[in-house]
Amino acid sequence: NAGVMQNPRHLVRRRGQEARLRCSPMKGHSHVYWYRQLPEEGLKFMVYLQKENIIDESGMPKERFSAEFPKEGPSILRIQQVVRGDSAAYFCASSPETGVSNQPQHFGDGTRLSIL
Amino acid sequence: GESVGLHLPTLSVQEGDNSIINCAYSNSASDYFIWYKQESGKGPQFIIDIRSNMDKRQGQRVTVLLNKTVKHLSLQIAATQPGDSAVYFCAENPGNTGKLIFGQGTTLQVKP
What we know:
heterodimer, A: four-stranded antiparallel sheet, about 50% strand, B: mainly beta, six-stranded mixed sheet, five-stranded antiparallel sheet
């Protein structure tokens, strides 16, 4: 019964490089969500995806950030040309196929992104 | 606008006492609420949830109370243990959007 798996756990990038964060949902879950957490703050919603579809990306910056959840393989959050302000913990959550309505989201342990 | 907030940033309790963590929300459309526990270096861990058609829900050592009149949510932990030390977040799901809105969090410190 593996939970939500995220990798890498820690990622260091220099300004201008690209960061790729991966998330494999729990078995049987087809809804994936990405959140960002700054130190001493709560999580902020970024994007909600189902297989091959972006459902809601209202919390994701329009530039440099993109997300996908292909038919096969993990969900990817991609940050291009990273800047120091992108340093944060990025969490992925998943929920069951029965839909988002009143279903708890289960979280992975996150990727800590540090920008030098 | 939409917001979920917590009244106290830090709560310190004696081991064995009961803990009460509070949360206020502002979106009347929210119909589903969740409490999460986050330990250092880990992701939020689901504790308990409640739907808006309920006032109270109990789990193992935890109880969530929902007061829709004043838009208030609380988490009660009975016989608090050192392992309960963590940051606790309430989250709401307005309008079944799948987009959870988190509060800032309350740090629970359990003194031996």
